[in-house]
Amino acid sequence: MLTCEFCGEELVLEEDMKTHLLLSHPENDMGEQSHDGEAEGRGGHSLVRPSSSPTPTTTIVDNHCKQAIGLSRSEGSERGVDNGNRFDTIVSPRTSNSTLESKEQITEAGGEFGGGRAVAIVVSTSSVSTGFLRSAQDSSRPTSRHCNADESVGVGSAEHTKVKQKRFSSPTKEKRFSCPMCALVCTDAFILQEHVELHLLEESPAEEAVLGATSSTEAASSSNSSGGKSYECPLCSVVCGDCYSLQEHVELHLDYGTATSAVSPGSDLRLARRLQEEEKQRRKEQEAKREAEEFKKLQRQFGVNGRGGYRKQMERTVEKAVSRGVMVHAHFHNKRDEMMEALASGVDDGRTRTQGVLGALYVYYQREARDCVHVWLSADTDHYYSSEGDKGWGCGYRNFQMLLSSLQRMEPYTTCLSEGSVPSIPQVQVLIEGAWREGLDPQGATHFNQRLQGTQAWIGATEIYALCTSLRVSARVLDFHQPTGPGDTHPRLFDWVKQYFSQTATSGARLPPRVVQTTQPPLYLQHQGHSRSIVGVEQKKNGSLCLLLLDPGCTPGDVRKLLSQDGSTVSTAVCRMRKFPGNLKHRQYQVVAVEGVLTPVEKQTRILNSRTLQAERIP
Question: Half-sphere exposure (CA, 13 Å, Cβ side) for 71?
């Protein structure tokens, strides 16, 4: 491999080097011709820089620009001897390789050339050239030949000296391009592109082309910058800190089809905004879908999903019984007629009612339950259970029927309540809508869209309060909003219930009896998803309390076991009514307690205050 000492280009053949010297460096050739004459007369020094390629070492001697010398050490010595000249060959190794140092020796060939000495300085290097790439260190190191300007004679020698001084004072500045992936420097952008493509052989063809253009653009921009390395995308104006980030950025262009089109400097910003808008739209759609599903779930839960109310559910249930063969058609028509008659009258037909429950409990505690120190029972109350028309959603209405059945038997409430008639569930819905129209609980009315008839909507403590106030019955709502005992229990609730039932039973008595049936109406107990009625409380010998609950979910058969004469059967039924603190572990409980009758003025005051209805929070 031959290397030009003027421009550093490497050629393989000697003929190519001669042609290159004649075409690219004619002024140096003229200077060398004059310098050759001087060398013949006085002797000269020549700098020879061989390439370290595997081919045999071949050097170019400056005083013979058209003649290659130094083919081998032995040949050079023989040629010097044959010509009668004397060459001093100085080898300057640039590597620490001992093999190279051992092979190159400093020798002197005998012979005279015009009475002087010709010294050939052979510089060996270990850097391997690729033919079109050189390292930044080698390309920046100036190479020159030394000549004695004072000894030059003739016009040719003067021109040669001027050319040499011009070349040393004004070196040629070449535009160089650094590879973004390694330390190599290229003199041409297309060569750099080919080199970068070698780094990306394992990438896809489309990505190789884009990344090759990226590396070429970055190499051109980095040659004019003195700061840290950065990589500019060839498709937009984004600058990345490393080549891997640039590759990921270009892949985004490929994914969205922007790599093959002409891209303006602001296209990446538009792409980012489009992606952001698409992400926002996708999130909005997912949020709307989730909200719709939750709304439908709430509609099913609270019975406002458009499936009809008490009447339609009763009809569907009876029709299913006929289709299964459980009910004959004649019975179906009779039951349907009875239902239509009860709905028209607005009074419950009493088919779901069980009477005499509190009396049976009083007798039981008189004979049994000796582990109880005290037992307090509410006033006489009938049990109502959920039928085919309200199963799954009518517990609130049934508990109001239980409360109303007790109030109708008590003297203070007979003036404002119709004696002996308990409204049906559709009629209770009508009464609640009437309370809303009077101005009670406007927030609750808005929640149900001012409508309960023909729906399976659940009702809670606030609807019971509004209905009682509309009937001029004084009521209060107590909110046990958080557990007050270990294990998420509510001992404060149990204590309050005991105080409610025992406050009238113990007045004026020194030693209260063990079993007391008070004149207090039952309590409406509401928690998440269900409601029940509290009709009594037990106090054990160890001081623990136990509530007695009537559940609308219990069938008439289970409740009527309390009326049995068999002690074991009654004990089993009472055990189902008992609820200890460990059985009531919902996070929140609300209680509606009736306290008397309202005057018209008090009712109006309650209506005004219900605009911001608030419960009494305990604790």
Answer: 8
Rounded alpha-carbon distances, angstroms, from residue 185 to 192, 207, 220: 8, 23, 11
Closest CA to 464 of 526, 421, 411, 529: 526
Q: Say which residues have a Cβ less than 8 Å from residue 12's Cβ, sequence separation at least 6.
A: 1, 2, 55
Cis geometry, peptide bond prior to residue 522 (ω within 30 degrees of 0): no
Please, what is the angle between helix 154-169 and helix 26-42, to 10°?
Answer: 120
Q: What does the pLDDT look like over 141-178, one tens digit per residue?
A: 444 434 343 443 344 445 555 544 444 444 445 567 78
**Residue 29 among the catalytic residues:** no
Q: What are the tokens at 474?
A: 């004084």
Give the span between the Cα atoms of 341 and 426, in whole angstroms. 13
At 170, list the tokens.
């004004």
- What is the C-alpha to C-alpha distance for residues 501 and 379, in angstroms, rounded to an integer? 10
DSSP string, 582-600: GG---S-EEEEEEEEE--H
The most confident of the ranges 46-55, 127-136, 255-264, 497-506 is 497-506
Q: By C-alpha distance, which of 479, 480, 477 is closest to 490?
A: 480
Between CA 583 and CA 147 the distance in angstroms is 111
Following CA atoms 162, 168, 173, 178 in sequence, which dihedral angle do they give, to the nearest 10 degrees? 150
Count each helix (H run) and each strand (E run) in the chain, helices first: 21, 24
Write the pLDDT tens digit of every residue in 248-301: 777 776 666 544 444 455 677 888 888 889 999 999 999 999 998 888 877 776
In order of 185, 256, 379, 382, 501, the CA distances from 538 in angstroms are 96, 74, 15, 20, 11
CB 560: neighbour CB atoms within 10 A? 18
Q: Flag whether the pTM goes above 0.70.
A: no
Which one of 199, 481, 530, 586 is the catalytic residue? 530
* CA angle, 581 then 584 then 590, to 5°: 115
Residue 304: how many other CB atoms lie within 10 Å: 18
Q: Is 551 a catalytic residue?
A: yes
Q: Which of 363, 362, 378 lies closest to 550, judged by CA? A: 378
135: which strand partners? 184
Give me the percent of the chain exceeding a pLDDT of 90. 39
- Least Cα distance to 586 among 520, 487, 513 occurs for 487
What is the Cα–Cα distance from 11 to 612, expressed in whole angstroms?
A: 98
The tokens of 287 are what? 């949020």
Kindly compute the dihedral angle of the four CA atoms of residues 444, 448, 451, 456, in this order, to the nearest 10 degrees: -120
Please tell me the distance from the alpha carbon of residue 144 to that of residue 334, in angstroms, as a whole number: 124
Q: Measured between alpha carbons, how far is 253 from 451 in angstroms, rounded to an integer?
A: 57
Out of 395, 468, 546, 554, which one is annotated catalytic?
395
Helix (H/G/I), strand (E/B), else coil: 250: helix
How far apart CA 59 and CA 56 sit, in angstroms, is: 10
In terms of Cβ atoms closer than 10 Å to its own Cβ (0-12, 13-18, 19+), residue 183 is exposed
Give the tokens for residue 504: 């009238």
Strands 616-617 and 473-480: parallel
- Give the amino acid at 554: C
Q: Are 471 and 449 in contact (CB under 8 A)?
A: no
- Burial level of 531, CB count in 10 A (0-12/13-18/19+)? buried
Output the CA–CA distances (angstroms, integers) from residue 411 to 259, 379, 407, 418, 475, in the order listed.
89, 12, 8, 12, 17
Determine the Cα–Cα distance for residues 552 and 548; give it in Å rounded to an integer: 13
- Amino acid present at 450: Q
